[in-house]
Amino acid sequence: MASDLFTIGSSGVKAARTALEITSQNIANAATDGYIRRSVRLSEMAGPGSWLRVSDLSLSGVRVDGIGRNADLFRQVEVRRTGGDAARASTELRGFENIEAALEQSALFPALTGFEASLQRLSSDPVNPSLRAAVLEDARTLSRTFNLAASALDTAGEGQRFEASDGVNQINLLAGELGRVNLQLTRTTTGTSDQVTLLDQRDLLLERLSGYGDIAVSYAPDQTVEVRMGGGPTPLVSGGNAAPLAMSANADGTLAFTLGGNPITLSSGKLAGHAQTLTALRDNRATLDSIADSLIAAANTAQASGVALDGTPGQPLFTGSGAAGIAIALAAGSGIATAPAGAAAGSRDPANLAALRDALQTAGISGQVDGLLFTASSAVAGRRVTSEALDAIASSARIALDEQAGVDLDQEAANLVRFQQAFQASGKALQVASDIFDTLLALK
């Protein structure tokens, strides 16, 4: 009897001590990123009696079967999925805000309306040198605002590509680390503290990867994972191996990704956000170039139809092409062709100036610029709504996981008291067993 009590008491002390250690570990790591609450798995130890009393049950106390993680695979997958969508939307929002700022801060629309206003003022006195100089200066300002807008869009694109390149590097680092964790998992014993620590590292790496791109995860019986990204045929991580993710910039500034040499398309995560932003930036830049070319064509065609102040044929007002290349071509305001072809030098006939204003109106330059700015601001507003909605969904998924897998300090404090009492009670059982053993020795 005393030996049974010793066995039961010592096993109880061991189990309670292990539970106290795990509880303390939970408390210490309550704020640790990626930490999943641990619990001790216990089972009763009992067996048949001795050969003399086979009908008896031999009680042997409790056994520590291992350490468990309160992880829910479905909730973890939801955190990765919703987090990736939120990361894509947030990246898109910031990128679209940069596009809007590049267009708005260039003051393109005010410069265009200022140029049109100076043309109107000149029509009242076509030979006035100061009014002619003002038109030329406003035309120069307008061309420079196109240059500024194009440069700002290019800078925004460079920033997006730089961040995307950094994201690719981060993915390759995370994938390499995940491969090493896979190898370590194959060498650990199920239910040990080493294994659960590695599983925490594995899941944290998976979550971080999902923040950069959409991933599909397969789990092996030994808890290693195979990770695929972007629907490509080559796994990003398989066993201890990690395939390289690469990024290249197309001629139009958009991005292309390859995994292990095979092209992939990303639909979530930061990299998808950068890619979609650059696609939108390309479209905005193309629209801006088209507007600049329309302005150049309209103004220069009108100039060619009239004569300058000295009676010579009108020369191009603008030179170059596209928003980045547009520049003022005339050296002096006297070159503005306000009079129709055939008019004498010094003519006050503003017919060709009216034709220039009509050409700008027909080309819809102001409407195109206004439409470009409106589209950019509308895109930002739409992305903001989407980002806020996806952030809320991701937050809900995170809360659901934390409720199940996170550390509740109040609960852990109660567990400390409970396991301390169990430890003390098991120690008391050992004391009783010792007293009984001493009594038996005294009888002899």
TrEMBL record:
The keyword Secreted applies. It holds the Pfam family Flg_bbr_C. Residues 8-35 form the Flagellar basal body rod protein N-terminal domain. Residues 98-318 form the Flagellar hook-associated protein FlgK helical domain. GO terms for biological process: bacterial-type flagellum assembly. InterPro entries: Flag_bb_rod_N (IPR001444), Flg_bb/hook_C_dom (IPR010930), FlgK (IPR002371), FlgK_helical (IPR053927). Residues 403-443 form the Flagellar basal-body/hook protein C-terminal domain. It is found in: Bacterial flagellum basal body; Secreted. GO terms for molecular function: structural molecule activity. SUPFAM superfamilies: Phase 1 flagellin. Keywords: Bacterial flagellum, Cell projection, Cilium, Flagellum, Secreted. GO terms for cellular component: bacterial-type flagellum basal body; bacterial-type flagellum hook; extracellular region. The keyword Secreted applies. Its main location: other. Belongs to the flagella basal body rod proteins family. PANTHER family: FLAGELLAR HOOK-ASSOCIATED PROTEIN 1 (PTHR30033). NCBIfam families: flgK_ends. This is Flagellar hook-associated protein 1. The lineage of its organism: Bacteria, Pseudomonadati, Pseudomonadota, Alphaproteobacteria, Sphingomonadales. The gene is lfgK.
